[in-house]
Amino acid sequence: MKKIFTLLVAVISVSIYTSAQVSIIKSENGRDGMYPAYIEFANNAAPPHTKGTVFLQGPGFQRTPNNPILVKTEFDNKGGEHYRYQQTINNVPIEGAIYISHVYNGKILSQNGKWVKILPTDLATSAAISKDAAIGAAMTDFGASKYKWQLKGEEAFLKKETNDVAATFYPDASLVYYTGEEDIIPEKMKLAYKLDVYAQEPVGRRIYFIDATTGQVLGKRELIHTTDATGSAVTAYSGTQTITTDLYNGSYRLRGIGGRGNGVQTYNMKKGTNYNAAVDFTDADNTWNNVNANLDQYAADAHWGAEKTYDYFKSKYDRNSIDGNGFTLKSYVHYSTNYFNAYWDGSRMTYGDGSATDNYKPLTAIDVAGHEITHGLTTFTANLNYSYESGAMNEGFSDIFGTAIEAFARPTQNDWLIGADFYTLRSMSNPNAYGDPDTYKGTNWYAGSGDNGGVHTNSGVLNYWFYLLSAGGSGTNDLGTAFNVSGLGIDNAAAIAYRTLTVYLISTSNYANCRTFSIKAAEDLFGVGSNAAIQTTNAWNAVGVGVAAPPPVTCADAYEANETRTTSKSIATNTDISAKIGTSSDKDWFKFTTTTAAPNVKVTLTNLPYDYDLRLYNSAGSQLRISQNGGITSETATYNTSAAGTYYVQVYGYGGANSNSICYLLRANTSGTRFLGEATDAGITSIKDLVNSNSLSVFPNPAKNLVNFNLSSDVDTQKEVIVLDLMGRMVLKQKYAIQKGNNTIKINLPRLAPGIYFIKIDSNKLQRFEVTK
């Protein structure tokens, strides 16, 4: 175990406040080694705020002199001043360590965030490798064939865009203390170089964290926030709208110079990939009905969408663009060829054209424009990390404001669907309908590392919370919790979401933090004990955040004795059965049979009181599958085959875990349809039998961060591509548009551990590939 010490501050410059001078009315502890995550003071006994210092708890309270950096100050329409401070040690920032002081009339009424209290004793204070070595390590890991700074035209573009002759895409490596993407863990803190790497081919932008001692990649963070819409189609449904342009050299161009901050500008990339080569869209009479083979009509959609996004935040929250200071909203249309996506890269919007056929169009719908530009708002406020729960919330807030902006811009055409103008990607009113969860860690919750930890999937929880808070609803969630929420209307719900995002959340905030501070935001806006605060709480209860799951059901085990395979108890298929592990030596065995009409098997073990594991055997006693998730996470074993058979299931307590009275639920589902996502085919041997497909090839192989595959098709269609590991578990799923003829499709491979994987398309198209470091 590492030795730790408490960070000491110079006594001479510390002001101490005793508990008699301040009064705390609410407090939430941080994790071990951290200061409190939230403190609320009584109005008549609140500490004074001194700009540039952070007020830390005791004994008593002290203003810290350890050089915190004032990152940003936000002013709200309630008279509040919100100061975001970055913690530093040895004048080096601690990544993600942000404390927010909420000041009214010169007093700190509350503060929240993450601030390290106890540091490792072996913390490095200087780098052992150079900046160039760190940049080289990041480039090696990225594996791109070309980077932005290697193109003179792109460098010239950036200098012109920023009006800075020194601007460059070349990474500027700076030192930080880093502990990981999901949270700040003091004992894991390491000195690291932080650098921004922008790739041209394939397009990508990531923040890298390189160990400043060893050169190891400690973490990486995606900056390109996509629509998750690869392969979908878009048609403009917004009709005739008023847009702002300017007159230049005798023709009009899609540039709104004044009236909306520093402007709204839309450019034509002419199917190229270099921003420097982009040109203006022009029109002779300022009537933009440019329907043509180049799909130029969709440029007006992008331009209008950016304008309405600006108008929404200005009219609802008096915010001058996404940074509050008039940030220019730039959109780039006609990016590349056969590019089925749109994204915010941290500085600008980019839209691909989709397929060249009439079935697929650019993704310039109003809710998508609002969604993507809101990623920029998030960057300038909470700056939620684009991974795991914080990343899911990042996506969820973009869906929230994409929908709110659509309701603002097209009130008669608003819906609760994301991308419905062209191809529905997600539903806020029913996330399950599109494979997303509506309950925290419930059905469809994604627990893997693909898609940056499930940011597009797990956003369904925040989406459903917002839908219920806006429109209301009742029912029972996946945890068995009954709920009834009275809707506040979309404007009030959005106001609560906006204040939560811009005032309280920080980069590593999770769903639990979002619950706490959205309730606080509702109290700020509508009053403590108000209906809005109550319904905000009810909506979080409905989606299972902050509410404990009901205790497991107790039962009398009707299947004992069944400690061996020969004493297995027969169970019915497609039916829940309850049993228990009663002692440390108890192992439960069950037997069931399948038919030729429904030969495929999926066994699930749920409602676990302790850490139980699951094994599936064939009639000869050979093990087919094993599921060994940690803790009380449910277990699943899936086996697909075309033959009927007899199977055995063993349930056992890991490490002898057992319960005297609490039962688990076991279910053996059978089906005539193959179970995808958990396992595929009748064992690894059968997977290998399907590897050689004449219509599917994969390269490079081995791969690192990106893999391509060639696929031929007789028709224009859409395919769902699944990536599976050796155990047959789904690690990535994505839809692609496939054109008639030969297609080359690119798949990003986020966070996949080294090993053997399979790309699967349809039942007879599957190919093996390897991932290396």
Strand content: 25-35%
Average residue-wise pLDDT: 81
Provide the structure class.
Answer: alpha+beta
Instruction: Please report the number of helical segments.
Output: 11
Q: Give the terminus-to-terminus CA distance.
A: 29 Å
The percent range for helix content is 10-25%
The major sheet is characterized as: 7 strands, mixed
Structure, explained:
By secondary structure, this protein is of the alpha+beta class. 19% of the residues lie in helices and 31% in strands. It contains 11 helices and 46 strands. The strands form 12 sheets. Strands 17, 20, 21, 22, 24, 25 and 26 form a 7-stranded mixed sheet that branches. Strands 3-4-10-9-8-7 form a 6-stranded antiparallel sheet, with helices on one face. Strands 12, 13, 14, 15 and 16 form a 5-stranded antiparallel sheet that branches. Helix 8 packs across helix 9. It is globular. It starts with a strand and ends with a strand.
